[in-house]
TrEMBL record:
Binds 1 FAD per subunit. Substrate binds at K89, R276, R277. It comes from the Bacteria. Pathway: Amino-acid degradation; L-proline degradation into L-glutamate; L-glutamate from L-proline: step 1/2. The lineage of its organism: Bacteria, Bacillati, Actinomycetota, Actinomycetes, Streptosporangiales. Residues 41-285 form the Proline dehydrogenase domain. Keywords: FAD, Flavoprotein, Nucleotide-binding, Oxidoreductase, Proline metabolism. It comes from Nonomuraea montanisoli. InterPro entries: FAD-linked_oxidoreductase-like, PRODH_bac_arc, Proline_DH_dom, Proline_oxidase. FAD binds at Q152, K177, G178, A179, T214, H215. GO terms for molecular function: nucleotide binding; proline dehydrogenase activity. This is proline dehydrogenase. Transmembrane segments: none annotated.
Length: 295
């Protein structure tokens, strides 16, 4: 229930105005959003962590805004080390205006990224964008074999999607539970977890490169066990977690030799991202409300 309210608030301009104008929000934002992205990336890299960087922004209203997002990513690529990844939301590149526009914009970023030894992963957003996401991904793959895509385990059809994606050698697939609401999607945590494990089994058994995006300790253990079962060493898959969430666990996994990639968001358009993070964990909301009340 609380989750639904927060996700609805993530789409409300009125709530956004109230939340973003509070100076106390800054503390909560800085926990999840990088202020100086170059410095954060340098720190994480020094600690042996990999990064995927997201320039925050969703849902552009016109072509000029979509082109602005492309320029931002091109500038970002110049700051990142080889082996980094960028996470991209196709709605920020104009998906809701035209699929071709989003495809062209994503291809521009892919080309520049490839020149610098950086990969690109397409985030999964609201349920009505998932068809467009996979269509753009399939087209991009023809020219850029390393383009990754996110599958949300709460969606109906996630397992079939994983099975299809896992067929291609080296296909980069990031598996997450799903951060939005969607008609027909699983809602009970235990059901979402079971669906996650089913998808994970298919990805680990397949020919692709699974990217295990979760902070859930049980799923991290299951992924590690499945990797061993399928003869994958540390180079055959990676863990991914969000900047600011379970940082000690991120470092622990990296020390054990796992490839641990941190999803680092930055930029001014942090509001919907922050609200989704609060929806994931009610305890964070209490902390946040206390900050807003100035206590
Ligand atoms: P779960 O929510 O059950 O959390 C497990 C434990 O992790 C909690 O008990 C708590 O300890 C900790 N935790 C989780 N969230 C926390 C938070 N916000 N603050 C503090 N502690 C927290 N979703 C999507 O729909 N499309 C996408 O493209 C992506 N991309 C993506 C990339 C990466 C790298 C990650 C890690 C996640 C995503 N997600 C996403 C978000 C994902 O769908 C999901 O909402 C969150 O990861 C939370 O789910 P968990 O699997 O972590 O489990």
């Amino acid at each position: 229930m609380l989750r639904q309210v927060l996700l609805a608030a993530s789409r409300s301009d009125r709530v956004e105005r109230v939340v973003s104008t509070s100076p106390l929000t800054r503390d909560v934002v800085s926990r999840y959003v990088a202020g100086d992205v170059a410095a954060v990336v340098a720190d994480l890299t020094r600690e042996g962590l990999l990064v995927t960087v997201d320039h925050l922004g969703e849902e552009v209203g016109d072509r000029a805004q979509a082109e602005g997002a492309v320029r931002e990513y091109l500038a970002l690529l110049a700051l990142l080390p080889e082996g980094a990844d960028v996470s991209v939301k196709l709605t920020a590149l104009g998906l809701r205006l035209s699929e071709q526009l989003a495809l062209d914009n994503a291809a521009t970023i892919c080309e520049r990224a490839a020149e610098r030894g950086i990969t690109l992963t397409l985030d999964a957003e609201e349920h009505d964008t998932i068809g467009g996401l996979h269509s753009v991904h399939a087209t991009l793959l023809k020219e850029h074999a390393s383009v990754g895509v996110v599958v949300q385990s709460y969606l109906p059809g996630a397992l079939e999607r994983c099975a299809r994606l896992a067929e291609a050698e080296g296909a980069r697939v990031r598996l997450c539970k799903g951060a939005y609401t969607a008609p027909g999607a699983l809602t009970a945590p235990a059901d979402i977890d079971r669906a996650y494990v089913r998808c994970l089994k298919v990805l680990m058994a397949g020919s692709g490169y699974p990217m295990v995006a979760t902070h859930d300790p049980r799923l991290v253990e299951i992924a590690s066990a499945l990797a061993v079962l399928h003869g994958r060493d540390h180079s055959g898959f990676e863990f991914q977690m969000l900047y600011g969430v379970r940082p000690a666990e991120q470092e622990r996994l990296a020390r054990l030799g796992a490839q641990m990639r941190v999803y680092v968001p930055y930029g001014a358009d942090w509001y919907p991202y922050l609200m989704r993070r609060l929806a994931e964990r009610p305890r964070n909301l209490t902390f946040f409300l206390r900050s807003l009340a100035g206590r």
